């Protein structure tokens, strides 16, 4: 961290005509070779005399910016281009006529008056004529062009209001001019005319389409939406650095809002904040910070950096962000957000299907309902079978069971004597709970792993579980289904299905009291006894 080394003056400017004194004080700092923060229509900038290498050096110090990242030179009048650029092409004039003053930076061949400290040794210079009245007044009063990068500590989100500048720069620069919050909120569009065809290096609110309307062909640099590959050199050195990044870890969930929600539901324990559009906040099951309205990309540019800083102020650690549109102004938003996220995308569930849980008491016809769902394309996960898999000879679960319930629950070939285990475990509440504590977490883990594989391809996974609720498997499900049949129907079914006495059948039925109670929470009840038809109900509920 760089030390606090000076008092920073703070001037609030609401009227440049009537506050010439304050502007003049700031201009005097510039002429004295110092650094002043100024508002522009894009973001705040850290300004110094572009002709004074020592002053420019102070900008790099204040920001902690790498020396090989060049600065934009800000001018008040378009004619000043000729003082700093060589061989000014007609296209540059055409661009300035159409978009200046405004959020556009043009890169041209530089004149020698521009020190290497500004151009970082490149033969080119970036030029921009800001439209913000305070920036214009400061440049005019200083009487020199101003080299100015965004006024953040290098790597952090650019500041879009004077308080954010103060947070980053107090004690490091001579003055801050507070001109209110910036209109656009993301930095200028950067296009180089030193390439043929011209190349977009950084997207902003002036879009590729708008540039093409003046320039014809415009290439979009690879680095606009992609991280630099190892060993690649950046056309715009700023592209190679970690950028716009808050302290929180940001992940972008690709796809539409419904996909985002589905992802969040399945993974919400993995994040503590959601970064979404205003309209979506109320449906998002996590604390949210919003980044503008989905229907208004300008509200998104204005909010983006504020939102990133807000996440840090709230102490967010892991954030799942919505994926903005890449169209038009959206390209500029994606460029910033992708970098803020370090290009981390989450899209494993783009075609995500859902997870259904089916439970039902013995004889209710759970398996019958699962077969219907299977015929309609769902993939069934039989938890009884998973329970047997995890207790195969040699498995860690089986070992733990033997330690808890006695070595003799294993047959001589190492397989489980289920009958003996059942008689030991179901003898007391404490023992049956211990059995659950050993087996349920493993069953849940395997069921979830398999369900994820199934839904990844857009299919529906059906968890067939007699103990759906008692084992906590319901928590994995998007919807839970209880298959129901009255007691007399179930009794008759068990007697004929399992070929057992009425007494034995009743004993089996009474063992399921707890699940019966818990399963009252099921989302859907399917009646499976005459005259009801489960298939009919499944079709009507649009379960698949
Ligand atoms: O909106 C803006 O442009 C703001 C306000 C303050 O004007 N300024 C700004 O500056 O964003 P900065 O330094 O944060 O970003 C300038 C970008 C960097 O990516 C830099 O690498 C690139 O422009 N750049 C500057 N000079 C260049 C040159 N000669 N060739 C290629 N890229 C250049
Ligand atoms: Mg910057």
Describe the structure.
It is built from 20 helices and 21 strands. Helices cover 37% and strands 16% of the residues. The protein is an alpha/beta fold and 544 residues long. Strand 10 (199-202), helix 8 (208-215) and strand 11 (219-220) form a beta-alpha-beta unit. The two termini are 57 Å apart. An eleven-stranded mixed β-sheet has the order 1-8-2-3-7-4-6-5-9-10-11, sandwiched between helices. A five-stranded parallel β-sheet has the order 14-13-15-12-16. Strands 18-19-17-20-21 form a five-stranded parallel β-sheet, sandwiched between helices. The radius of gyration is 33 Å and the shape is elongated. The structure holds threonylcarbamoyladenylate and magnesium ion.
What topology emerges from the helices and strands here?
Layout: E1 9-12, H1 20-31, E2 36-38, E3 45-49, H2 53-63, E4 72-74, H3 81-84, H4 90-99, E5 104-109, H5 116-119, E6 124-128, H6 133-142, E7 146-147, H7 162-169, E8 175-178, E9 189-192, E10 199-202, H8 208-215, E11 219-220, E12 249-253, H9 257-267, E13 273-276, E14 288-290, H10 297-313, E15 318-322, H11 330-340, E16 345-346, E17 355-360, H12 366-375, E18 379-382, H13 383-389, H14 396-405, H15 418-425, H16 429-456, E19 461-464, E20 479-484, H17 487-498, H18 502-510, H19 513-518, E21 524-527, H20 534-540
Helix pairs in contact: 1-6, 10-11, 14-16, 17-18
The structure holds threonylcarbamoyladenylate (TXA) and magnesium ion.
């Amino acid at each position: 961290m760089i030390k606090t080394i000076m008092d920073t003056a703070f001037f609030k400017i609401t009227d440049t005509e009537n506050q010439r004194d304050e502007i003049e004080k700031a201009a005097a700092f510039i002429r004295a070779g110092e650094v002043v923060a100024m508002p522009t229509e894009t973001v705040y900038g850290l300004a110094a005399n572009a002709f004074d290498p020592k002053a420019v050096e102070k900008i790099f110090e204040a920001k902690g910016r790498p020396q090989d990242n060049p600065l934009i030179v800000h001018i008040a009048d378009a004619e000043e281009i000729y003082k700093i650029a060589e061989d000014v092409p007609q296209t540059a004039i055409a661009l300035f006529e159409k978009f200046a003053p405004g959020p556009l930076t043009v890169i041209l061949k530089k004149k020698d008056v521009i020190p290497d400290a500004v151009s970082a040794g490149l033969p080119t210079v970036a030029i921009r004529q800001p439209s913000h009245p305070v920036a214009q007044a400061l440049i005019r009063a200083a009487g020199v062009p101003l080299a100015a990068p965004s006024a953040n500590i290098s790597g952090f989100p650019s500041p879009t209001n004077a308080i954010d500048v103060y947070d980053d720069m107090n004690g490091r620069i001579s003055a801050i001019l507070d001109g209110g919050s910036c209109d656009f909120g993301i930095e200028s569009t950067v296009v180089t005319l030193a390439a043929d065809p011209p190349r977009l290096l950084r997207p902003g609110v002036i879009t590729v389409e708008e540039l093409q309307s003046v320039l014809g062909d415009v290439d979009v640099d690879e680095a606009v939406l992609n991280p630099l590959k190892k060993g690649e050199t950046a056309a715009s050195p700023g592209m190679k650095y970690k950028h716009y990044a808050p302290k929180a870890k940001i992940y972008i969930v690709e796809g539409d809002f419904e996909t985002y929600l589905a992802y969040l539901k399945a993974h919400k324990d993995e994040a503590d904040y959601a970064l979404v559009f205003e309209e979506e906040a109320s449906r998002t099951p996590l604390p949210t910070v919003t980044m503008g309205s989905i229907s208004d990309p300008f509200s998104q540019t204005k909010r983006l950096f504020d939102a990133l800083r807000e996440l840090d102020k709230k102490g967010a650690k892991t954030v799942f962000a919505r994926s903005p549109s890449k169209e038009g102004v959206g390209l500029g938003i994606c460029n910033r957000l992708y970098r803020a996220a370090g290009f981390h995308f989450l899209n494993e569930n783009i075609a995500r299907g859902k997870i259904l849980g089916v439970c039902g008491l013995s004889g209710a016809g759970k398996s019958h309902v699962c077969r219907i769902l299977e015929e309609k394309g769902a993939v069934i996960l039989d938890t009884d079978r998973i329970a047997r898999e995890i207790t195969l000879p040699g498995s860690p679960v089986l070992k733990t069971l033997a330690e808890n319930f006695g070595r003799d629950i294993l047959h001589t070939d190492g397989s489980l004597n289920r009958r003996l285990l059942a008689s030991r475990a179901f003898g007391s509440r404490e023992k049956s709970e211990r059995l659950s504590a050993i087996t349920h977490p493993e069953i849940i883990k395997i069921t979830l792993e398999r369900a994820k594989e199934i839904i990844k391809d857009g299919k529906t996974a059906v968890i067939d579980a007699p103990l759906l609720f008692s084992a906590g498997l319901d928590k994995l499900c998007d919807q839970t289904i209880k298959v129901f049949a009255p007691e007399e129907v179930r009794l008759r079914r068990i007697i004929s299905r399992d070929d057992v006495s009425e007494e034995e059948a009743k004993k089996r039925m009474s063992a399921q009291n707890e699940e019966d109670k818990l399963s009252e929470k099921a989302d859907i009840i399917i009646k499976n006894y005459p005259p009801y038809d489960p298939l009919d109900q499944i079709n009507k509920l649009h379960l698949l």
